[in-house]
Amino acid sequence: MRKAFPPEDLARDSRFARVDRMDQIADPRAASGQGGGRPNQRLTPDRADSADAARSLMHGIFVGEIQALEGAGRTCWDFETGTDGAPFALKLDMARQCWDEARHCEISVKLSEHMGTEIGEFGESAFLYQAACNPDPVLRLTGVNRALEGLAIDVFNTMKEFGSISADPVLEFCEDWMLADEVTHVKMGSDWLRKLTEDDPERRANALEFQRVVDKLFSFGGFRGEDDESPVILARRFRELAGFGTDEIDEIAAISAEARDEAKAHRASLAAQG
Amino acid sequence: MADIDVVPTEFRNVEFTADQIRGVVARLLVEAGLVDHPGIGSVRIEVDESTPLSKVVTQSLEPLVICAQSGALEDRRRTRHFGGDEAADALGRAVFAAADRLDPTFDGPAFDADVGVAHAVAWDCHVVGRMARLGHRPQRQRRLYSFELRHGFSDATVAAFDRLWSAERLTWAEIVAISDDARSVVGAA
Amino acid sequence: MADPHAPRPAFAPWDRRELPGSFTVEESARRAGNYKWIEMRLFEALGGWIATVPELDVKMRLGTHCYHHAWHAELWHKRLPELREMNPERLAVPPNEQMERFVEALTEPEAADLTIEKLVGVYRVLIPHKIAAYTYHLNNTSTITDAPTIRSLKFILHDEMDDWRDGEMILQSLIETPDDVRRAAERQVELETILVAAGGICGPGTLGGPTSDEQQPHQEVSA
What we know:
- The complex is a heterotrimer of chains A (about 270), B (about 190) and C (about 220).
- Chain A is mostly helical and about 270 residues long.
- Chain A is about 65% helix and about 0% strand.
- Chain A contains nine helices and two strands, in the order αααααααββαα.
- In chain A, α2 packs antiparallel against α3 (about 90-115), α3 packs antiparallel against α6 (about 170-195) and α5 (about 135-165) runs parallel beside α7.
- The model of chain A has no long low-confidence stretch (mean pLDDT about 85).
- Chain C has a single domain (about 25-200), classed as Heme Oxygenase, Chain A, CATH 1.20.910.
- Chain C is about 65% helix and about 0% strand.
- Chain C has helices at about 25-50, 55-80, 90, 95-105, 115-140, 145-175, 180-200.
- The two termini of chain C are about 35 Å apart.
- Chains in contact: A-B, A-C.
- At the A-B interface, α2 and α3 of A face α4 of B.
């Protein structure tokens, strides 16, 4: 088995369909904006399309959990213990994360059944796993555990609130449990970043820069933010629990706003081109 | 058979063809008993390919004009490609609802009346249940979830949903009653 | 109620634990090091394979089992300093080159259509050998002096038995045709042959008899 496993080779059964993120970005209909120009994209039960929007988001969470499982697993395998900067305890944390993500996949399958979604009903983009392919374990952990798992905190908190507002006991219960795990994973990332770059400020700076890039990519042009236009809301309280400082959360909010503004400008330019 | 016009005739933003849409609608008209209906005249399907959203609105009954955003007819697994099941589901709900409205015994709401979301979802469940028995992709649980979101998560809600889903023909008053009863049970709990 | 001041035997009548055991501190530490090494190789491989198997249920099981073996490695890692090995890495080694060759062969398959080969290596060869070695250790070590090892062994064996059953059931569900049966059997023969040459997961003496170091049977330590 190779060290470093490319995203295009991720193994799936026949139900799954891979979509290219670039195709989505190049979709000419994107000119109408995230959510097709709907002014308020917050996921609430009073939205006419809320059931299908929740189902689609849940399927996205499901395939995201599969890729998070695969990414954590690859970190167990790709790095020799100790010799190239992956301490034994870090690999134990990654194995623990494998178990957690495997449970999240199981929970997601059950939740999808509850919501009437079939496995593979929506296309899967592998770009989440791509962040788990960085050859430096510090950058990989920072990108995955702080940026992506941080996004998972925001997504799960949004879904939990949706479950609470819609009085869906199954959804609220499951999301709350997954949220607890994600806080743990983000904290793991924060702790390892600090520990492994204690005497290497340049490496720490590189890792934080990689996190910023991933955070921006996963703000999806306004997908995650603090305003009503964002379907997923930055979960400040849970991020604090996971070891993020206020200044770090402010920075993510700024990155998200920047991503949203850039996407707006891009759409305006597409619209101007007709 | 009524003429089926699809607008636009050629698509630029999505990989759809007018014939694909026409084929789906032709089958639905037969299944909904509208194929020779004297009132609807020609059928027109207007697709808004400028947006990936998936709203479907019936603009007129006679003639039958249905406006669909392109996301409603899109394969959920392949961006910008036509999805036969998705189109049948989205357009089928509009066509079967139109058939209900055109049936005097249904005694439906006025065409321009504001139908509340809970009643609309209950009506959808009744329509999709009938379509499932005609061989369309059932997605029963998907419809149940949508119904529960608007009527609460309880055994009583599931029972109400089953009545809507399995009934061959309900009147508008019966649909409204089932929906209101389900909501009152949850509200009382 | 019995008189609280009346003398009672230190060992209750039902407590049959005895001092004698087959292993010295050094031999226990050597085995614990071998255990840690193979548990690490196993959790790494299971983690790596997750991305390579298309079967969703297998993917999720591998993720779960990956952590079980990582936790076992951690238990042995923590036990080593208690056995006077202050540098746990020193003893976290394979018992011999054949064992290294076994792990190389075990972890070689990658392609998406080789799930049977991957799982046979783990669930029909390695884990049965681990269960045998752990059971031998459990049944032969001193129930008084080596109680901490026994406690770890019992936790680990509980996982191993569960995982073995899981893996075997998955394999039985994947093996459908005579060709599948042949593939599974050939893979088992290939790996079992190497593991037998290694003498088991702790090398010669894994299940008794002389170890490669001693070239003679263990001495029974008597009270």
